[in-house]
Specification:
Helix content: 25-40%
Strand order of the largest sheet: 9-8-10-11-12-14
Number of strands: 14
Strand content: 15-25%
């Protein structure tokens, strides 16, 4: 007899739970019996039970069996009709910026007759219960698609993103920090191209040296930015200074930038990421540190929803967040015209 597919088994199990009269707190039949009922193998059944357990629908106990812990509406398997909803996962600590992003996407979607539901996450803190609740609601809504601002760093939120990869919901990533790219469309900033553009600007300002000032670690975006700077440095005969000079934890703090700047040799230009780090270093240029104020070329790289009247007093290579958000939404609302492969976007050079 032909075995059913994993999706068919998932649908069959969902239907069985809802129509069998089993209630929250009651147990499913033993795995051997359930596998025969669903015409599948025990390894396939275990994979499905693992997924149901991860999203909080069942609990499994080696000796006590499998217990239903939440009513199973159209959570998995049989999907609810596709809704006029686009979901949005935004990751980060800057709530004001996240609100700006959410408002921008909602305004664009309303013009096209869609609404937005949003999930706020964090790179450095995983809330498994919150993720399970979001996934259950997402499967019930069955949205048109999902826009993600960034993938997780390390293992944080791995469960959430693994489950999204297994779903039949169209997921579009605006950034991606993992080495393995997702299977769906994605819109990526060309950080290497930004490094070449930043170095070219500093060279045009007469710089012979340059240094990258960036608080924190070295995510792939920073490594790609450095790769671009190194390529341009060879082309222009420039020298990249050791970023250990930066004092990575201190230079971006107000009042500390002048100390960092005073260590740099003449004809040095500074590349910063993110833009707010450039703002702090720019302030440091007006703060005397054992001598008169320091002046040197500075260019910042980052993504920002630009407010024209509040532009910093130095050039910015801005990966237009608005442009990438619109491109991501188009991938969802008009999938027949959307790119199926990586789409790199160069930053816009914005002068003060």
């Amino acid at each position: 007899m032909k075995r059913t597919t994993i999706n068919q088994v998932m649908a069959a199990l969902s239907l069985y739970i809802r129509t069998s009269g089993l209630k929250v707190g009651e147990k499913l039949p033993p795995e051997r019996e359930l596998a025969v009922m669903l015409n599948t193998s025990r390894p396939t059944l275990r994979k499905i039970l693992d997924r149901f357990e991860k999203i909080g629908v069942i609990e499994r106990n080696r000796k006590g069996g499998t217990t239903i812990v939440e009513n199973l509406d159209p959570v998995l398997g049989e999907k609810a009709p596709r809704s006029n909803v686009v979901s949005f996962i935004t990751i980060g600590q800057d709530l004001k910026l996240q609100d700006l992003r959410q408002t921008f996407i909602q305004e664009q979607l309303l013009k096209k007759g869609y609404i937005l539901n949003t999930y706020f996450a964090s790179h450095d803190m995983q809330d498994l219960e919150k993720e399970q609740h979001y996934l259950r609601s997402l499967f019930r809504i069955n949205p048109k698609g999902l826009v993600v601002t960034a993938s997780p760093n390390g293992e944080t939120n791995e469960f959430l993103f693994d489950e999204l990869e297994r779903s039949n919901i169209r997921v579009v990533h605006m950034d991606y920090y993992k080495k393995t790219l997702p299977r769906e469309s994605f819109i990526l900033p060309d950080w290497r191209g930004a490094g070449i553009m930043a170095a070219s600007y500093l060279h045009s300002q007469g710089c012979q040296n340059m240094i990258l000032g960036q608080p924190g670690g070295h995510p792939p975006s920073i490594q790609n930015l450095q790769d671009g700077m190194e390529a341009a440095a060879k082309m222009f005969g420039m020298r990249i200074l050791d970023d250990a000079l930066v004092g990575r934890k201190d230079y971006g703090v107000s009042g500390q930038s002048a100390a960092f700047l005073a260590k740099l040799p003449p004809k040095t230009g500074v590349v910063t990421m993110p833009i707010k780090a450039g703002i702090e270093i720019s302030r440091g240029m007006t703060e005397p540190y054992g001598k008169s104020s320091l002046k040197m070329p500075l260019i910042a790289v980052g993504e920002h929803i630009m407010q024209k009247d509040k532009h910093p007093a130095f050039p910015v290579l801005n990966f237009s967040w608005e442009y990438r958000a619109v491109a991501a939404m188009n991938c969802i609302l008009a999938p027949e015209t959307a790119p199926q492969t990586r789409e790199l976007i160069l930053p816009e050079f914005v002068a003060p």
